[in-house]
Write a structure and sequence with these properties.
Layout lengths: L6 H4 L5 E5 L2 H13 L7 E3 L1 H9 L7 E5 L6 H11 L5 E6 L4 H9 L4 E4 L4 H16 L13 E7 L6 H14 L5 E5 L7 H4 L7 H7 L6 H7 L1 E2 L4 E4 L14 H13 L2 E5 L3 H5 L9 E6 L3 H17 L4 E9 L9 H8 L5 E4 L2 H10 L3 H4 L7 H16 L5 H6 L16 H6 L9
Helix pairs in contact: 2-6, 3-4, 7-17
Length: 435
């Protein structure tokens, strides 16, 4: 609701308070209140009028239940309640009027749910549990905050190069190490691992959004996202593989819009085929982290993806990360040759650490959290720091130019001469393939 926030009273907020009109309603509510771990003696008589009088001189509870049975004009009375109810309170209402229009108008006025009397235990149990989930869901960023939202897409050049591992790690590091509210949006609807990496059940939020884009709003985001910590929430899916997701991408775009208003940072685990099917998703993405391995196939696809961004999203800052790198003698392509083929420098190099990866999977933590004491993962921490700096400064200068004094896409060696994709790959020196 919208009463002015009072810090002095906020520290004394009750978890639940109810104002009902009759004893039968009170008798129905008290057992469920006790089940939820709240105090049954916080169920008061007096209905909405008593609620307005009481909350005008005391702190609003986290969850407020009001009975509208004796209200002659429920909408006006709810507006009066809004004047004394502090922000953040989840308001539940009940009444005897079975009118769809009234229900919609009450929801539009800020009520979380409206229950038709007579009340039963299952109805109340579900309603209170849902209210508690909304209360615990990630909250919108403080409007007074000067931090600009930063959306980062993490894209793998090849399957298995570790893009999802890096996406979940960045989301965890930005939320935990840099204290920013962060949304992890995993757009691999059938095989996404965003929730799995955090030891969470993905829920149906993402699939519901795809099937019903018109439902997407701020409240939907609160309900659909799975909370991983105080500052990190995940929107992921495990859709059945025999159920193709037919979408024009509208849902994905709307999700980005709503998430942008509720979080300081968005990390999008973006499958590379999305660039082909839904190129508009990149329009509002400030940074794209291209994750690659030092292999021939990855070099080919890195060239193609970088070229796509140059043509379709030149405003996006590109950061290239070489992941799962082995000692030089074991590389399929050397770093120098790889950089020559893609005509730009690699910004960060992450070594292959099977031990940390296995440990992360076993304990249900992100790669960054499992290896937080491993100095070899320093480049990942530097990348997270760079994304935060970008959000604070709004600086869109390319990473290579900032860190190495080079311009974006600076040619190196023979690659500066240009040529076709085949000619670029032909210049790579591959072990055992001639000179």
């Amino acid at each position: 609701m919208n009463a002015p926030f009072n810090p002095a009273r906020s520290s004394h907020r009750e978890p639940f308070v109810a104002f009902v009109c009759d004893e039968s309603t009170a008798d129905a509510i008290r057992p469920i209140v006790a089940e939820m771990g709240w105090a049954p003696d916080k169920v008061h008589r007096g209905g909405l009028r008593n609620a307005v009088q009481t909350l005008s001189v005391s702190a609003s509870p986290n969850i407020l239940f009001v009975d509208l049975s004796e209200s002659g004009d429920p909408l006006n009375d709810i507006n009066a309640l809004a004047e004394v109810c502090e922000p953040g309170t989840v308001v539940l209402a009940s009444g005897q009027v079975n009118d769809v229009r009234l229900y919609r108008e009450l929801l539009a006025s800020g009520i979380h749910d409206y229950l038709l009397k007579p009340l039963n235990a299952d109805m109340l149990r579900d309603c209170f549990a849902h209210a508690q989930a909304v209360l615990n869901a990630p909250k919108a960023v403080d409007p007074g905050s000067e931090r600009a939202h930063c959306a980062t897409a993490v894209i793998g050049t090849r399957g298995g190069c570790g893009a999802s591992t890096i996406a979940t790690s960045l989301a965890w590091m930005i939320s935990e190490k840099h204290s920013r509210t962060t949304a992890l949006l995993d757009l691999d609807v059938h095989f996404g691992t965003g929730a799995l990496a955090l030891d969470l059940e993905p829920g149906r939020g993402l699939t519901d959004a795809i099937e019903n884009p018109s439902r997407i709003d701020g409240l939907f985001i609160e309900r659909a996202m799975v909370r991983a910590s105080e500052r990190l929430a995940v929107l992921s899916a495990e859709a059945p593989i025999n159920s193709p997701m037919m979408t024009d991408g509208t849902a994905f775009y709307q999700l980005q819009e709503e998430i942008r208003g509720a979080f300081e940072t968005t990390i999008i685990d973006l499958p590379r085929n999305m660039l082909v099917n839904h190129p508009h998703l990149i329009a509002d993405v400030q940074v794209a982290v291209i994750v690659t391995e030092l292999t021939l196939a990855a070099a080919r696809d890195a060239i193609r993806i970088l070229s796509w961004f140059k043509s379709n999203a030149p405003q996006t800052r590109l950061i290239v990360v070489a992941n799962k790198t082995h000692p030089a003698a074991m590389l399929e392509i050397s770093r120098k040759d790889f950089e020559g083929s893609i005509e730009r420098r690699i910004d960060y190099v992450l070594p292959y650490d099977q031990k940390v990866a296995a440990q992360a999977a076993k304990i249900g933590k992100t790669f960054a959290e499992a290896g937080k004491n491993n100095k070899a993962l320093g480049p990942l921490a530097e990348l997270a720091q760079q994304l935060c700096v970008l959000a604070d400064t709004g600086d869109a200068a390319p990473a290579a130019a900032k860190s190495k004094g080079a311009k974006p896409g600076t040619p190196r060696g023979e690659a500066a001469k240009g040529g076709s994709l085949l000619s670029k790959l032909g210049k790579l020196k591959l072990p055992g393939r001639g000179k």
